[in-house]
Amino acid sequence: MTVWSSVLLAMIVIGLAWNWAAAKFNAELKRSHPVQWHDLGEPASLTQGSVRRELQWALFLLSRKYRHLDNKRLSALGDAMFFCTVINFALLIFFVFVSRGQPGTGF
């Protein structure tokens, strides 16, 4: 297995973990903080909502505002999603910049 296929496989696995955490996060948010869930546009995994609502939900996660809700499960799931995002972004940067100029990479 090449480095590039390993990076791609890692990104897929991390993406699946993120989706699992997002589904659990949204269910927990709806169950324990229905007002906040409603204010965020009633998010669900892989929604087809408006771009504005999707950005609002993403900013809620990236700014880690969920930590102010004093819910340990919500914080753990949100942190897992946050770190999955950071790791996948780092892998993407690695993939793009390290593969530059490498034969057979298409860059």
Give a short synopsis of this structure.
The chain is mainly α and 107 residues long. Helices cover 70% and strands 0% of the residues.
Map the helices and strands.
Blueprint: H1 3-32, H2 34-39, H3 51-62, H4 72-98
Verbal overview:
By secondary structure, this protein is an all-alpha fold. The protein has one domain. 70% of the residues lie in helices and 0% in strands. The protein is built from four helices and no strands. Helix 1 packs antiparallel against helix 4. The mean pLDDT is 85.
Brief descriptors of the model:
single chain, mainly alpha, 70% helix, 107 residues
Give me the Rg, rounded: 17 Å
Number of domains: 1
The major beta sheet can be summarized as: none
Low-pLDDT regions: none
Number of helices: 4
Strand fraction = under 5%
How far is it from the N-terminal to the C-terminal residue, by CA? Answer: 20 Å
Helix content: over 70%
Q: By helix and strand content, what is the structural category? A: mainly alpha
Number of DSSP strand runs: 0
Order of helices and strands: HHHH
Kindly state the mean pLDDT as a whole number?
85
